[in-house]
Amino acid sequence: MNLRHMHALVYDLGLFTENALRLLRDCASVKYFVPWVDAFPEPFKAKIGEGLDGMERIVSFEEHLDAADFVFVPDTLCAGLVEWLKKHDYPVAGAGAAEKLDRWHGRQRQKENGLPVQETHRVKGVTALRKFIREHKNYFIKIDVFRGVEESFRHIDEHQTEWTVDRIACKLGPYKEDVVFVCEELLEGMEPGIDAITWEGELLFPTACGYEERGSGLIERVYRTEAELPDAARWVDEGLAPEFKKHRTRFFYSAEFRIGPSRTPYLIDPTIRLAAPGVAAIQAELYRNYTEVVYGLATGKKTAPVITHKYAAALALESQDARVGWVNVGFPKEMRRWLKLRMAVRKGADYYCVPGFESVGTVIGLGDTVKEAVDLVKQRAKQVKGKRLTMDETGLDRIVDQIDKGKRYGINF
């Protein structure tokens, strides 16, 4: 498929700049938009993607819509836009109506579609949550929709959790009794995930499964056929397929699940968007025909990923300075393809991450063995420089241990 004459338009929320840039390798142009308008705008979100290796940063999405050959919407919270574009016959790749932000709703659909469900409680308001943590131990607590208030956290006992609840109450102020918490039983076992593409409920092969250690890294294995895929991953995909079919979803998705000695997979978090930071970074290079895949999702031309490696690894780069200030990221020119920056700009010859997020980027590596992929990542990561830049290489070693343990539960790797 020759896309050299095609013009892509990307609507992002700032985290998938590199996936937009990847399209430029095969298209005539890529225009990149991140919403930035505010009553008192600052030059941060309006700059994400600016000057980045030939990609054009635009300040208005609508003005460029009719000139685009296809639209790519990689992130969540954009279902309304994606469905509007579909309704008006714009070729668009995005999650659309399948993007269910209500976790409680998701658990009900999960049960209806035959997936196992761990003990789960819906708790409304901080007062009810305080009562819940007094009476229960060993749960994961998640906030519906507004994850910016607090990421999902582990509740061991009241003493460990009360300060987190205090912080949430302070942030929410007068709305602290309105927010909904989903509290899920903390299960023993391993936590692998499937990182895939659905075509209206059909799983496209080859696909991948992997293990992630948050804030550290990710290791993935490619599965070329349904017969190769672990039974647990197939079970999870088949449980999600009816929703994808109902909404005619053609897009990327990821789903982490918990599995133990019973080999029964309990779905943790389905993500109907690009998964970040490691998965999306890996997919941009693991899929040799990445642009063709995205174009096919937008236009209805079913295109299976072309993958030549069996394994991939990613190492997360973080800087606490990036939360409040610009961080310059330095690296050798030949490393550019293997370093995927987040919320990035280029000014002259220098690359910077826009203030507001400690996640700076991801270093990736592909290989035919786990060791090859991991060693490449570690070698490359040593070449990246930045103010107070941190990385946890030992996290990849811990994932290798998880891979070995997971084999006992049927996760062939």
SSE layout and pairing:
Layout lengths: L6 E5 L5 H7 L5 E5 L22 E2 L12 E3 L6 H9 L4 E2 L9 H10 L7 E5 L1 H10 L3 E5 L9 E3 L2 H15 L7 E6 L6 E8 L2 E2 L3 E7 L3 E7 L7 H16 L3 E9 L7 E6 L6 H9 L3 H10 L11 E9 L7 E4 L8 E3 L2 E4 L2 E4 L5 E9 L2 H12 L3 E2 L2 E2 L3 H13 L7
Walkthrough of the structure:
This protein is of the alpha+beta class and 413 residues long. It folds into three domains: 7-98, Rossmann fold (3-Layer(aba) Sandwich); 119-185, 2-Layer Sandwich (Dna Ligase, domain 1); 192-409, ATP-grasp fold, B domain (D-amino Acid Aminotransferase, Chain A, domain 1, 2-Layer Sandwich). It is built from ten helices and 23 strands. It has helices at 17-23, 79-87, 103-112, 126-135, 158-172, 231-246, 278-286, 290-299, 370-381, 394-406; strands at residues 7-11, 29-33, 56-57, 70-72, 92-93, 120-124, 139-143, 153-155, 180-185, 192-199, 202-203, 207-213, 217-223, 250-258, 266-271, 311-319, 327-330, 339-341, 344-347, 350-353, 359-367, 385-386, 389-390. Strands 10, 11, 12, 13, 14, 15, 16, 18, 21 and 23 form a ten-stranded antiparallel β-sheet that branches. Strand 1, helix 1 (17-23) and strand 2 (29-33) form a beta-alpha-beta unit. Helix 4 (126-135) packs antiparallel against helix 5 (158-172). The protein is globular and about 60 Å long. The two termini are 32 Å apart. The mean pLDDT is 95.
